[in-house]
Amino acid sequence: MDGDSLTKLGGWRSLAVIVVLLGGAGPAAVLAQPETIREKIVWAALDFPPFQIVAGPHRGSGSFDGLRDLLVREIGDADHELVTMTFARREDELRKGAMLCSPGMFRTPVRERYLVFSKPALIHLDNRLVFLGKNASRFPPGAAVDLEKLFKDRRLVGGIIAGRSFAPNIDASIRHHGGSPNLEMRALKPSQVIELLLSGEIDYTIMFPHEAAFLEQQAGRSGWLSNRPIAGTPPYIVTHVACTRGEWGERVVARVDRILRGQRNHPEYRRFSERWYSAADQLLIRWHYPRLAEADAEPPR
Known about the structure:
Strand content: 25-35%
Oligomer: single chain
Largest sheet: 3 strands, mixed
CATH topology of the largest domain: D-Maltodextrin-Binding Protein, domain 2
Radius of gyration: 23 Å
CATH architecture of the largest domain: 3-Layer(aba) Sandwich
Helix content: 25-40%
């Protein structure tokens, strides 16, 4: 698989072939002594701070980075590659059946058709509507935003990252209104969407509040952005490790599940979910964290 950026984490072992000559003119006996073929696992790496951070001083310190690094260490006899790509490309590669795995995937009925999902791996607070604080009065009043009404308001232009999933109710509204002229769907990095928001080219986007705060700081701004909860969105969501559906994907996910069963109850593992949240939000993560194991039996939504 070619990638926007490719990092090789392990090497291949070739078969050892020993040729033994029996007598000067006799036939040659070829004794093949194959070593066990190592599993090759290709991981999608998104430029998705603060979940996956692929460059800069905080490189590798995201919550999905921590989970993936743990899996790479614990899976054992396997070779791993990281391929940096956009949300849209990851979705396209997975739909095409490329042998690919990714942490941080929402489990949905549609994705069940072409992906194998691990047990719930991480827990996160909800995605929210993000906008410039000075424009708060342009949005409907109330504690939570009704997306159906918002998407119909032609006075406001939204910018959504193509190929990204947010929550069942949010995804459904985006699918319904995605062709509207005031709801732009672009295959952009989250940082690029924040730049559009800060420059006034769009009026709002949807992302995690701590994600928006991280990107705002990276853009050299502070206190410009505000957020509002979205009506119908649960206060937390869980994400999974997912691999392409098929024998290979099922085999890799089985190995991932064994690791998760042994790791999820440790405080060190829980801290992957807490990375880059504020102290107050870390307490909320800990409050909801027991639901991670309870979600094992929940069907995809």
